[in-house]
Write a structure and sequence with these properties.
The structure is a homohexamer of 188-residue chains.
Chain A: E1 25-26, E2 41-46, E3 60-66, E4 71-76, E5 82-88, E6 91-96, E7 104-109, E8 114-117, E9 122-126, E10 133-139, E11 147-148, H1 149-154, H2 162-169, H3 173-182
Helix pairs in contact in A: 2-3
InterPro entries (chains A, B, C, D, E, F): Cupin_1, Germin, Germin_Mn-BS, RmlC-like_jellyroll, RmlC_Cupin_sf
Keywords (chains A, B, C, D, E, F): Apoplast, Cell wall, Cytoplasm, Disulfide bond, Manganese, Metal-binding, Oxidoreductase, Secreted
Subcellular location (chains A, B, C, D, E, F): Cytoplasm; Secreted, Cell wall; Secreted, Extracellular space, Apoplast
């Protein structure tokens, strides 16, 4: 149960007289996330779950770490636009527009480059180099949400029927079963 | 280039004295869409592209037709919540919550049932029966957008790199090439 | 006391881990409402009062049934635009723009036609035919509200002073008393 | 054709370098409106039509003058809440809640009293005294709109069918014709 | 702890059946505030703290009294645009645009004049005459907030470091100490 | 004259078929701004003026560089909340709540710390150390605006009257003239 936050900048749910400076603070964004996983990336989120004072204020941050050849795989934020800047390394990034064009806008980003991923569109970042990469991303919601496409479609709990996915992705059901198995770690 | 619409309910871009009743009207939602396609479904959209008077008013409609065993495959609306009611037939429908739960909420809907798909979440409808099905959907935007997951990920123009998709979906690159080929019709 | 709803798509008031698929579901929109009343119409609403999961999501549905010569009399939704489609029969519909033009935009709708009633404007639907009619309406609020003009003005509880209404409608007070009596069923 | 306004507080449509102090100014709210009309009241509006700089800023003002026994008859603002304060005289004011309660909240206001009329609800002010009254009202929209119930329902252009209104107000059609005639001044 | 208010116009936190007319009412705006203070002005605010029914409705009022040569010193409303009208006397008013122009828009207002102060911009009113002045202001928030620049910068609790303020205002630290002392009444 | 931007994520003003990847891109945030100025700091902004594709998307970025003992002096963003993270060095930061408390919330931030400055509140960052410092800030508006308090109050163009400022800051007019002179570089 989320107990909403502080009052300092408008009517919220807590007596402003009891708000503390810690309600606006988070520590640790200088530390690399653990990228020892299948995608080779890690997201450290700083949103209203970490900083209660963000309640009603419409913004949050995240740090993304990428191992060499690591990627933040295709995903969407259902409630936010993202703006990202590269602190270290290089990234190949892109987003795809909605139907019917499904046009890929992609670009190689180097240190100091900034890129925008508009609200709700599928996007990704790929570290194609031999060194690690680091990015800082800002999102236009206190609680943007993340939907990683492959995990959500093939690793939901319970699973989406194989018949539906086979037809959606135009593959046979055996292939769907194979992909489902890769994401079984996410299921209960 | 979108030329925005009428003035009747607030300041927009056209002299309200020249607004016509046709600016608030659309005809033809009683006609079935053509479901002779791979997914066996058809969406007839009625949004600001069809009714200029919807500009600034935050709502639109759609009719969805489903052939037997047809489906409206997993997709998202980047800017809208959807509420759907079944006019004819039965549908197995669902949506999946965001990370980390990726919980599938699913249900069989019969005639007269109503279901909500919250903004930006992946959802689908599947006609598991031997008869056609029909639904009416309303969306909380004049221009909700549609992102069909498989088409967008595997049929974008140009294609997303096979390396990225192979790692994202945990399959080998040959399989990605195979799926890409299924969606080549969407690419230029 | 409204206890707000589920968490699935953003911070609301209930632990998302306890959300149920029933929180997004309603059953019965295929059943005709009872039109045996003075206006010859019935509205079956499906909003946040029926589907708790609509909380914060900005949309709702309604089914409207019309007996022959029945009507959904002039009314407004104080917090929503409406988009309506005719499932069966024919309707004469209209809305009136605000001061000083007070222009009536009206049209005969047949099966499959769609019409928009912009937020807060007075509008009506009249079944001028000898058969029943059915429409589905979507509204751009989880809780659009309905203000039926005649009932609200002449059937409020307690009554608005007859002097005020006589002058407003430019009739004598006896006539106001007469109309008040017609709506006494609505008063306590 | 509305040409939108100035840039000072955010992206609008005009070069901020050409904005003038006059774009934020209006003169004359100290002058009484002419209350020599059937309702015995006059509204002097100061919204985006008078002050271009209000564009996108969500607020406007109005002065209302009331002759003895004059009234601002039942009306709604489709896009705004109103907050009113009495500068001179006394007013009996009220608003009615939406269906199904249609509860009248009313009160006598004296000099210095403040009252709120929530968005989209029918409300009125009546000067029951023998002296003139003056009020200042603020509205939560640059372009709130006004729908005077009686004028809009019985004085629209063209007229709403007498059959519809007779049934809506539960009177015979002759009475509707009579009322229509009172508002013929508003029709073309 | 703010307990939110009434339900009449949308889902809020209190059973609408228990809402009272007093929840929409405030009394006393005809009475002059006490201007016997250093700035020679007094603001009487009427917002959601005074009228619980304003909750969610996006508007509030205030009366401002000015002694001869009194002023409402430079301040901002962090969450609202202000529109002000002069009831009595004359005022020299102004606002300054944001960086880099910092352009002063100023004007002398007489009785009945109206002026707009866009959201978040620094603004002031000065009564340069020998008579008192009175204004009514409306603000586009139920809880607009007030930040009086000098009091906030030099009278915060605890104080901002003198080094920071000396550099910001390009004065020596002794001067900052002097100004701090003037505002010590505001500190604990 | 601002010519608004691209269409990719909703109806804007330019044909989406002509949108380019450059409309979502900016380069150079890795380069330090020039801190050789009186305050010893430099802000490099990346908002809709630099990235046209941010139009309607509600977010922007900035890099802030601080020389040793440099500061980003007390300022406000009239249309945005800010969330900041320290990339290098240490900063003493704070914001002050609105009247009547004017409470200072302050904290020393080290590398990796994150802090929130709520919308419209006065805030500052001071590099109290002997090394340079760097921060990345995200803001909840495509066009947040910046109002540096001292520059705006004492360096506006034309100047605010010395009488007004002397009374506001409780200093004599000679002191105001002195401060005005420090900011004459900003005036025309």
């Amino acid at each position: 149960l989320y107990v909403c936050a502080v009052f300092v900048n408008g009517f919220a749910c807590k007596d402003p007289k009891t708000a503390l400076v810690e309600d606006f603070f988070f520590s640790g964004l200088h530390m690399a996330g653990n990228t020892s996983n299948k995608q080779g990336s890690a997201v450290t989120a700083v949103n209203v779950a970490q900083i209660a004072g963000l309640n009603t204020l419409g913004i949050s941050l995240a740090r993304v770490d990428y191992a060499p050849y690591g990627q933040n795989p295709p995903h969407i934020h259902p409630r936010a636009t993202e703006i990202l800047t590269v602190l270290e390394g290089s990234l190949y990034v892109g987003f795809i527009t909605s139907n019917p064009e499904n046009k890929l806008f992609s670009k190689v980003l180097n240190k100091g480059d900034v890129f925008v991923f508009p609200q709700g569109l599928i996007h990704f970042q790929f570290n194609y180099g031999t060194n690690k990469a680091i990015a800082i991303a800002a999102l236009s919601s206190k609680n943007p949400g993340v939907i990683t496409i492959a995990n959500t479609v093939f690793g939901s709990n319970p699973s989406i029927s194989g018949d539906i996915l086979a037809k959606a992705f135009q593959v046979d059901k055996k292939m769907v079963d194979h992909i489902h198995a890769q994401f079984s770690e996410y299921a209960t």
